[in-house]
Write a structure and sequence with these properties.
Elements: H1 2-16, E1 20-24, E2 27-31, E3 36-44, E4 47-55, E5 62-70, H2 81-101, E6 104-108, E7 112-116, E8 119-130, E9 133-144, E10 147-156, H3 162-172, E11 175-176
Antiparallel strand pairs: 1-2, 2-11, 3-4, 4-5, 5-10, 6-8, 7-8, 8-9, 9-10
Length: 178
């Protein structure tokens, strides 16, 4: 009987630690192994946040993987790729300003443009201090199906970006529903 319970527990752990697909706002993302969640919060006026975290071995700190969706409630007009890039960059700067206000010694990179599932997206890297601890992060923004999506990951620098890089890879591999 004990062997059977151990066997069932091992099977459960193997399923619990593998990446899982999560759907949101006409998209799906593979959440990396070890990230727990989702923790969902409505922010009112068509905005919501979904967060996952990967707790570090110290038990006090975690890597954040966060998805924020804003649905203004009315359809956007058809936009060219250049208009989507410009809009994504504008919204990215707005979302990033909230991060900057909560960090000391905040610095950011230039905006880079990438594609997420064929849709133009703006990407920026940042660094700063959280409670006197050196941190860094990556934020993205894209516009799809009249929704504005912000993707954000952050971690303390002392953890060498291991889980942060997993979150970045997941963001850049998002599949959009067409």
């Amino acid at each position: 009987m004990n062997r059977m319970l151990i066997y069932i527990f091992i099977i459960f752990l193997s399923f619990a630690t593998h990446a899982s697909e999560f759907s949101f706002a006409d998209a799906s993302i593979n959440i990396p192994e070890g990230f727990e969640g989702p923790i969902e919060r409505s922010m009112g006026q068509g905005a919501s946040t979904i967060a996952f975290r990967n707790l570090h071995e110290d038990g006090n700190n975690a890597t954040l993987l966060q998805i924020t969706t804003w649905n203004p409630g009315k359809p956007f007009p058809e936009m060219t790729d250049d208009e989507l890039k410009k809009g994504s960059a504008q919204y990215l700067e707005q979302f990033l300003s909230g991060i900057a206000r909560k960090r000391n010694k905040f610095e950011k990179s230039e905006i880079e443009y990438i594609e997420i599932s064929g849709v133009p997206a703006a990407k920026i890297e940042w660094s700063g201090e959280i409670d006197s601890k050196q941190a860094h992060g990556v934020m993205y923004c894209y516009v799809f199906n009249s929704k504005i999506i912000s993707l954000h990951t952050q971690d303390l620098i002392k953890f060498n970006g291991r889980y942060l890089n997993q979150a970045v890879k997941s963001f850049e591999s998002i599949k959009l529903a067409r």
